[in-house]
Amino acid sequence: MWYAFRVLRFEEALARILALGTPTLEVERVAIEDLDGRVLADDLVARADLPGFDYSAMDGYAVRTRDLEGEPPLRLPVRGESRTGAVPDALEAGAAMRIFTGGAVPAGADAVVMQENVTRDGDVAVLTARPRAGQNIRRRGADLAAGATAIVKGTRLRPAHLALAAALDDAEIPVTRRPEVAILATGDELRRPGTDAVPGTIPESNTVVLRAMARRAGARARALPFVRDERAATERAFAAALEESDVVVTIGGVSVGDHDLVRPALEAVGVTLDFWRVAMKPGKPLAVGRFARSGRRDAIVLGLPGNPASAIVTFALFGVPLLRALQGDARPFPARLRARMTRAHVHDPGRLELARATVTHAEDGQLTVTTHGNQASGAVTATAHSDALVFIPAESNGVPAGAEVDVLLLSDLSA
User: Fold this and answer.
1) I want to staple 136 with a disulfide (CB 3.0 to 4.6 A). Which of 112, 159, 213, 333 is the partner?
2) What pLDDT, in 10s, does the model give residues 88-125?
3) Cβ partners under 8 Å of residue 356, min gap 6
C-alpha cells in the first residue's frame, strides 16, 4: 500500500529523483544549427588552433618594428595588400603592407599600425606613431590551442556555444537524446479551454504549462487526451504512454480519495513506486515510480497533484531537474540565491513551504523578495505573477521582514 511509504524531506526526494536520471539517455550527433538547448555528451576539443593564423585586429599597415629607426613621422614604401580570404606575400624588409581587419599578417611583420595613425603620400605610408611589437595582432591559438577543451561535457548549449562550435569547424556535435515526455491530466471535471462551460467542469490549465516547461528543459513533450475517472480507461491510457515515453507525468488523482484512480491504475499496469509524498507545500502528494520495459531503460512516472500551483511547483522542483539529469546536464538543479524579505511571511510549522514571490533589487544592490499574500495551491494568479520560490523552513513560525532567505528563480527552474 502507498500508505506505508514514509513522507520524505525535500532534499531526499530531490536526490532520489536525480538518481533516476542515471544513466543518461543515448547519444546522437546533431547539426550545429539545431543545438540550442541541447546537452553536450562529450567534451568538445579543439582539433586545431583558434584562430588558425595571426590576423590583423583592424584596418591599417603591417610593419616590421625592427625596420623603424628615428622618431615619427616614419616613412615606409607600401608593398602589397592583405585582405580576408587570401594569403599575402611575405613583407619586404623596410616596407609596409596595407592590411584589413581579419587579414593574415604577412610573414616578417610583427605589428599593425592602425590607419588613423598613418597618412599616405602616394606609395609611401607616413607613420605618425611608433608601434610596439605585437600591436593590433590577434595571435594564432590565442583563443584556444589545438587539443584544449572548448566546452565541457554536460554543458547545456547556448547560442554563443554554437558560434564556438562553428569556429572550431565542427558541423555536428554529440549530444544526449531528448527525453520523450507524455502528460496526462485526469478527472471528469476537465475540459479544454474555450469549450462550452458545462456546469461542474473547469478549463484544464496544467498540461499547457507543464508541456512548455518540459520543452524548455529540452524534452519532446506531448499532452495526451484527458483521462476520465474510469478505471479501465485510466489503465489503458497509462499503459500506452509508458511504452512510448521516457517520462510519464500524470496530473491529479494521486491522493487517497475514493475517486483517485491513479495509484491503483499505475499498480495494475506494472509501475513500481519509488516514493510517495514529500514534506513540502504546495505539493505533498507527489508519486514517483518506475516501469520496466524489455530491452530499454525503465520509464519514469511522476504523479503530480491536480491543483495548479502544486502541479507547477512540484514539476519545477522535481520534473525539470529529472529531465535535465536524463540529458546529462552538469547542473540539473539551479543554485539557490540569498535575498532579503521585504515583509513578514506567516508559516504553520510542519512542512517546508515553497512560497511564491517576486524578486527585485534594492538601492544597495541586494536582492529582495516579496511573497504573495495568496499562497493557496489552486491560486493560478499568484503563480503567474511570481518569478521566484522562497524556502520557508519547516520548523519555523514564519519569516520576519528583513530576514535573509534562500530563493530559487523560476526562470532557472523552467528553462
Assistant:
1) 112
2) 999 999 999 999 999 999 999 999 999 999 999 999 99
3) 309, 313, 371, 372, 375, 382, 383, 386, 388, 389, 390
Report helix, strand or coil for 17: helix
- pLDDT score at 254: 64
pLDDT band, very low/low/confident/very high, at 260 (cuts 50, 70, 90): low
Which CATH superfamily includes the segment(s) 55-138? Molybdopterin biosynthesis moea protein, domain 3. (2.170.190.11)
What class is the 2-26+178-326 domain?
alpha beta
> Please, which residues bridge with residue 281 across strands?
353
Tell me the C-alpha distance between 105 and 211, whole Å: 53
**pLDDT-above-90 percentage for the chain:** 75
Check whether 2 has a pLDDT greater than 50. no
Where in the chain is CATH 3.90.105.10?
31-50+142-176
Nearest in space to 318 (alpha carbons), one of 247, 257, 239: 247
Taking the domain 337-413, which CATH number applies? 2.40.340.10
Task: For the beta carbon of residue 40, count every other beta carbon within 10 angstroms.
Answer: 26
**CA distances in angstroms from 45 to 170, 280, 327, listed in the order given:** 10, 43, 20
Q: Count the neighbouring beta carbons within 10 Å of the beta carbon of residue 386.
A: 22
CA distance 280 to 283: 6
Topology of domain 31-50+142-176, CATH: Molybdopterin biosynthesis moea protein, domain 2 (3.90.105)
Sign of CA dihedral 411, 413, 414, 415: positive
> Measuring CA to CA, how many Å separate 77 from each of 128, 284, 372?
15, 81, 74
Give the C-alpha distances (Å, rounded to integers) separating 152 from 89, 178, 329, 330, 367.
39, 19, 11, 9, 30
What is the distance between the alpha carbons of residues 84 and 115, in angstroms, rounded to a whole number?
Answer: 17
Distance CA 38, CA 24 (A): 13
Q: Is 34 left (phi over 0), alpha (psi -120 to 50) or beta?
A: alpha
> What pTM, to 2 d.p., does this model score?
0.89
183-222 pLDDT, tens per residue?
Answer: 999 888 888 888 888 888 888 889 999 999 999 999 999 9
